[in-house]
Amino acid sequence: MDKTTVRWWVTVWGFFAATYAVAWLIWLPAILWRGAQPALLLVVLGAFVPSVMGIVFTYLTHDRRGRRDFWHRVVDVRRIGQRWWAVIVLVFPLAYGLSGVVFSLLGGDLPPLTEILGQLANPGLVAQLVVANLIISGLSEELGWRGFALDQLQGRWNALTASLILGLLHALWHTPLFLIPGISQGEMGLFSLDHFLFLLMVPMGAVLMTWVYNNTRCSILSAILLHFFQNLSLDLIAGLQGALPTGYWTLFAGTLGLVVAAVVMVWGSATLTGMKRTGRSARLGREVEAK
Q1: pLDDT in tens, 185-240
Q2: Which of 47, 89, 156, 172 could pair covalently with 140 via S-S, beta carbons 3.0-4.6 A apart?
């Protein structure tokens, strides 16, 4: 095994190992305190570990040019064309909404539309939701998952395979949260059907993340915003962190699966852009020098 291969394996799996270890150590007391206020603060603190580790490993493995490129991709809105802004804003709200309509038509019980509209009519509440979901999901995680790990994985596997690997590891990273009451994963419960649906849905969502990311010249900002709209949509349809029925999650998983299948068929599994994969890396439109 040559030095490049060793360095790659140490780098990418080092990132995942550090992200798991630090976050899980932070969340362990939250499991023991079971829903107390300090436990919720630890949940939030642990949520920032992926982005912190993404920054750390970027600085460890890239030179000044690579570090500058990293931050440029976090803030540069020009990478995201009008079509991809529409995808970012609409894909998850439509998937959640369509699943909710079908679930209701089948006799399922969801929070009434008037409750959702009431939330949207409250400026203070909307501002709180926007800030919370932008920071605690998009900014707290995506500088690591997409900002660092996705490029590393796409350097070895095609876009679809890299997405599914990243998505599964991302989903499993949440495992301790299923033991903490008072948060959405804790309401699902560890090893419940909802938990297994979660393990299925996160990798499918990761494919959509890669699809947008690769088509916006590896924009980390696009991943931050897509994650934001995903979580914001969920908060609204669930009635502010309320638990959703298993039947709804089953329908949503099916809807998401159909969207992912369509994306792969149209844009191809190699890069999810309609372009052929060339060389060892699927990072499109740029080349960053590693140390």
Answers
A1: 888 889 999 999 999 999 999 999 999 999 999 999 999 999 999 998 888 776 54
A2: 47
Q: Specify the pLDDT at position 207.
A: 98
Rounded CA gap, 198 and 171, in Å? 7
Q: Closest by alpha carbon to 29, among 47, 16, 41, 17? A: 41
Task: DSSP for 163-227, please give it.
Answer: HHHHHHHHHHHTGGGGGSTTSHHHHH-TTSHHHHHHHHHHHHHHHHHHHHHHHTTS-HHHHHHHH
CB 224, CB 71: distance < 8 Å: no
37-51, 105-119, 187-201: the lowest-pLDDT one: 105-119
**Dmax over Cα atoms in the chain, in whole Å?**
61
AA letter at 192: S
> Is the separation of the CB atoms in 242 and 193 below 8 Å?
no
- Phi/psi at 158 (5° precision): -70, 170
Domain ranges of the chain: 3-267
Weakest-pLDDT range from 110-124, 151-165, 206-220:
110-124
pTM: 0.89
